[in-house]
Amino acid sequence: MSHWLKIGLAASVGLGMVCSAWAAQSDGLNMREIMVGVIAPATNKIWGAYDIKSDTQWLELDQAANVVIAAAQLTAQGGADGVYAQQAQNEDWQGFVQQLIGAARSAQLAIQNHDEEAMFNAGNDLMYAPCEGCHNIYLPK
Ligand code: HEC
């Protein structure tokens, strides 16, 4: 084998490894990543907010509500790896997702009105129930 052919082969093997590493990274979020990495921090921000003073704080809460909604849409598909694809088609799963989106919208409305009490109520009365409902059925034991 010629020297250049060897270098060419080595280069294409190397490129293949880079490509497969990149492909793995570009895979979407799985359920655990959506939950632990996206939903939980965003809902914690809303649940933990009190005595909000600045427009920046309100804006951050508004953004957190958007993150919950976006993550709920991802949850509707059961994550990118297909592990929950089947369960995600169930009516109750989709119902919990819709409940969560509705709750986040209610919290967002309160946030946009700078109404801390209404935000607190939406968070407590509406946003926690779909988490618990879905986990009771689908969280791995
Ligand atoms: C439609 C279903 C569904 C909804 C709604 C849902 N989750 Fe989850 N959640 C899951 C599933 C499924 C897992 C397990 C993922 C895995 O590890 O495979 C999970 C896992 C988690 C975990 C990791 C817990 C652990 O012990 O492994 C956290 C934290 C979490 N969810 C937070 C939340 C919060 C907060 C909400 C509501 C704001 C919520 N989830 C709403 C389905 C849901």
Task: Quickly describe the structure.
The protein has 141 residues and is an all-alpha fold. The chain is built from five helices and no strands. α2 runs antiparallel to α3 (55-76) and α3 packs antiparallel against α4.
- The CATH class name reads Mainly Alpha
Question: Can you count the beta strands?
Answer: 0
Number of separate structural domains: 1
Which sheet architecture does the biggest sheet show? none
User: What is the approximate shape?
Assistant: elongated
CATH architecture annotation? Up-down Bundle
Order of helices and strands: HHHHH
Helix content: over 70%
Percent of residues in β-strands: under 5%
Distance between the termini: 56 Å
Unreliable stretches, pLDDT < 50, 5 or more residues?
12-26
Which structural class fits the helix and strand makeup?
Answer: mainly alpha
What fold name stands as the CATH topology?
Answer: Four Helix Bundle (Hemerythrin (Met), subunit A)
